[in-house]
Specification:
This protein is mainly beta. It has no helices and 11 strands. Helix content is 0%, strand content 50%.
């Protein structure tokens, strides 16, 4: 069974940093693109960042461009999201996702999802 498990969420002051990690299992990790999404209370789940199978190409939502960095380690079956200069509007549950196509900026492009990790940014 495919399983994605996020970790690293927490509480941070505005302007601070957090690093999220996602551990994947159940199929060959290097064959799949990875993405990060987030969902705030009462809002739709939105795209944050994506990375291709090799890690050579990345793409970011305009709202996080220049502040967040996605990376992957195919030897360890992990993908990470480094979040800097955090803002209160970044507060959300962050989800790791896996799919066959690099950069589909909707939830429909990904077929497996983690359970999420809470990120809270205080003002």
């Amino acid at each position: 069974q495919v399983q994605l498990v996020e970790s690293g969420g927490g509480l941070v002051q505005a302007g601070g940093s957090l690093r999220l990690s996602c551990a994947a299992s159940g199929r060959i990790f290097s064959n799949y693109a990875m993405g990060w999404f987030r969902q705030a209370p009462g809002k739709e789940r939105e795209f944050v960042a994506a990375i291709n199978t090799s890690g050579g190409r990345t793409y970011y939502a305009d709202s996080v461009k220049g502040r967040f960095t996605i990376s992957r380690d195919n030897a360890k079956n992990t993908v990470t999201l480094q979040m800097n200069s955090l803002k209160p509007e970044d507060t959300a549950v962050y989800y790791c996702a896996q799919g066959p196509v690099f950069f589909v900026p909707t939830t429909h492009g990904y077929d497996y999802w983690g359970q999420g990790t809470q990120v809270t940014v205080s003002s």
